[in-house]
């Protein structure tokens, strides 16, 4: 990926859209603008972009719907919500609809730039890691990180969410090592998108339910008390 | 928002329950009266039969008919012998029907009054719910209308601080900043004007004003906005034309009408707004015309309602707070002027026509 990362801005405020475009272009990104939700969804679905910066209140289709449609269509392009709706409930809604991060207006330019590069870094890490090891097999389970498709030992098919796949990706990459909750939050979410590390625990529970024969006696996803988690492919008690 | 909808639903259920209970109660009264009247009827008939038997016994014992009918007024003598007065029997039957009838009429009237009261309450609750929904939308809209230009201003300022831009880029960023500032200013002054209107504290001091100069001033103050949006804004007018107006009120009206037209052409190729000033016999006609999104003629008057905004706030089809046209109409009406909205339908552009009293009129 030697080319400049391409970013799509979906924003109906011309002053803001053009302002962000100029700044990001100056930072070396290649940036396009869509002025309403429906055009934004079409453009984001084209596969030409590495990141979408998405407003929520938009003509024709609101940002939450755009993000949901993208995810339902199997598109995992990172989405950064940028919106005047800054209440905690709005942030949670954005993340629930499949957003990767959330910045409320008015924002600090440096913060926006940091978040953009952090999201791209996370996404590139996942892409690079997946390129090296597209499929992980453990204890009769199998997960393909390119398609998010998984199969547990009993033959059940699983479709992983983006975050589940990223956590498994990280744990598998550091197989046998203890990975702290903080590291998981930092690499999978970016530090302050979610308020607590309890979220990590919930996601580990989901992975155990999918792939452990007995989720209460995990053989692959081990809890390391007060620190984090350790993944073993061979399956040890 | 959710809570007020739930309240409205609860109220509807309460109304239905009230109505059902009342109808049931009324039905029960009717049945009860019918049965009661039937019993009274039977009692009266039994009494008549008893009198008839006694009268016949007396007649057989040789009492004269006159003495018998005097003793039993309900008995009459016919050629066939003694019998019960048919009119009395009929009256007893009629009594039964009349009681039921009376209750049916009174009950019906009661139901009509009840229905009317429920209707009035229901429409009051509905308009209350609608107003609340609009107020909620208003808060969202104001948040957006203040935060978006604020974000654009901060972005432009930070860009200038972070980077050593050349003079041309600095000019561009400054113009963008000023245009956002204009927009904020207009939102803030609309919110404040509305608060003053609500408190009836917007005094008007009419004087002779050159409306053409006033329009040119407003247009000039919007130059940054017009330029940054890539639309055209033309004024067609005589050199000057004096009207009788409060200068602040007329400025606010013209600004809001142009603002509204600029909003209507946002996102439209070759968006154009024209302000046309004409002198009539007693009125000056000021028309603000755009080739923008237009509107359904059926909602022409609703456009001027407070907080009115087409569609859902999440899908912002139109920028603004839903206050501009409300203020414009209010100020026009208070100045003996008339403001109307015209459009052939969605997508056909719109014309806002203001008829304003000339100076000396």
Mean pLDDT of chain B: 87
What's the count of strands of chain B? 9
Mean pLDDT over the full residue set of chain A: 88
Low-confidence stretches of chain A: none
Walkthrough of the structure:
The complex is a heterodimer of chains A (237) and B (361). Chain A contains eight helices and twelve strands. The termini of chain A are far apart. With 237 residues, chain A is an alpha/beta fold. In chain A, helix 2 runs parallel beside helix 3, helix 6 (162-173) crosses helix 7 and helix 6 (162-173) crosses helix 8 (198-211). The longest helix of chain A has 24 residues, at 109-132. Chain B has 361 residues and is of the alpha+beta class. Chain B has three domains: 2-134; 138-198, Helix Hairpins (Orthogonal Bundle), CATH 1.10.287; 207-357, Histidine kinase-like ATPase, C-terminal domain (Heat Shock Protein 90, 2-Layer Sandwich), CATH 3.30.565.10. Chain B contains eight helices and nine strands. In chain B, the strands form three sheets. A five-stranded mixed β-sheet of chain B has the order 4-6-7-9-8. The longest helix of chain B has 77 residues, at 86-162. The relative contact order of chain B is 0.09.
Keywords for this structure?
heterodimer; A: 237 residues; alpha/beta; Arc Repressor Mutant, subunit A; 5-stranded parallel β-sheet; 4-stranded antiparallel β-sheet; B: Helix Hairpins; Heat Shock Protein 90; 3 domains; 5-stranded mixed β-sheet; two-stranded antiparallel ribbon; 9 strands; 61% helix; elongated
């Amino acid at each position: 990926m030697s080319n400049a990362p391409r970013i799509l801005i979906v924003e109906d405020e011309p002053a803001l859209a053009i302002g962000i475009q100029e700044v990001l272009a100056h930072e070396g990104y290649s940036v396009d603008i869509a002025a309403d939700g429906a055009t934004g969804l079409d453009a984001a679905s084209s596969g030409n972009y590495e990141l979408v910066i998405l407003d929520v209140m938009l003509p024709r289709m609101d940002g939450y719907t755009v993000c949901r449609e993208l995810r339902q269509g199997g598109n995992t392009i990172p989405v950064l919500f940028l919106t005047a709706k800054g209440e905690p409930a709005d942030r949670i809604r954005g993340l629930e609809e499949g957003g990767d991060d959330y910045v409320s207006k008015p924002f600090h330019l440096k913060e926006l730039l940091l978040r953009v590069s952090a999201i791209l870094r996370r996404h590139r890490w996942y892409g690079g890691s997946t390129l090296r090891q597209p499929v992980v097999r453990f204890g009769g389970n199998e997960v393909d990180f390119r398609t998010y498709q998984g199969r547990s030992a009993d033959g059940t098919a699983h479709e992983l969410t983006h975050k589940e796949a990223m956590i498994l990706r990280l744990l598998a990459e550091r197989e046998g090592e203890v990975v702290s909750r903080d590291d998981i939050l930092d690499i999978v979410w970016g530090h302050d998108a979610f308020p607590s590390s309890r979220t990590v625990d919930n996601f580990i529970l989901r992975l155990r339910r999918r792939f452990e024969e007995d989720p209460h006696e995990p053989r692959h996803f081990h809890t390391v008390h007060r620190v984090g988690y350790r993944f073993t492919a061979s399956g040890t008690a | 928002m959710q809570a007020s909808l739930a309240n409205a639903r609860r109220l509807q259920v309460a109304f239905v329950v009230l109505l059902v209970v009342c109808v049931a109660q009324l039905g029960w009264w009717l049945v009860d009266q019918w049965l009661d009247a039937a019993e009274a009827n039977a009692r009266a008939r039994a009494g008549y039969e008893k009198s008839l038997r006694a009268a016949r016994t007396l007649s057989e014992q040789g009492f004269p008919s006159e003495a018998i009918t005097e003793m039993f007024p309900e008995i009459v003598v016919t050629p066939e012998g003694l019998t019960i007065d048919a009119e009395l029997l009929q009256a007893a039957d009629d009594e039964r029907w009349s009681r039921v009838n009376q209750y049916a009429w009174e009950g019906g009237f009661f139901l009509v009054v009840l229905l009317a009261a429920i209707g009035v309450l229901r429409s009051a609750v509905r308009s209350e719910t609608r107003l609340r929904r609009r107020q909620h939308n208003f808060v969202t809209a104001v948040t957006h209308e203040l935060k978006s230009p604020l974000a654009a201003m901060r972005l432009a300022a930070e860009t200038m601080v972070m980077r050593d831009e050349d003079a041309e880029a600095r000019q561009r960023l400054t113009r963008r900043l000023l245009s956002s500032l204009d927009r904020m200013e207009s939102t803030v002054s609309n919110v404040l004007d509305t608060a003053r209107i609500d408190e009836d504290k917007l005094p008007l001091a009419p004087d002779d004003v050159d409306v053409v100069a006033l329009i040119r001033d407003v247009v000039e103050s919007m130059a940054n906005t017009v330029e940054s949006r890539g639309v055209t804004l033309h004024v067609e007018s005589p050199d000057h034309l004096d009207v009788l107006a409060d200068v602040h009120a007329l400025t606010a009206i013209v600004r809001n009408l142009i603002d509204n037209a600029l909003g209507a052409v946002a996102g439209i190729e070759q968006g154009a707004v024209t302000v046309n000033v004409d002198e009539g016999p007693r009125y000056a006609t000021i028309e603000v015309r755009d080739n923008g999104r237009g509107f359904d003629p059926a909602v022409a008057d609703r456009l001027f309602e407070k907080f009115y905004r087409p569609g859902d706030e999440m899908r912002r089809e139109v920028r603004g707070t839903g206050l501009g046209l409300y203020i414009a109409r209010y100020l026009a009406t208070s100045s003996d002027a008339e403001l109307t909205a015209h459009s052939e339908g969605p997508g056909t552009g719109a014309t806002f026509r203001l008829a304003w009293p000339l100076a000396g009129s």
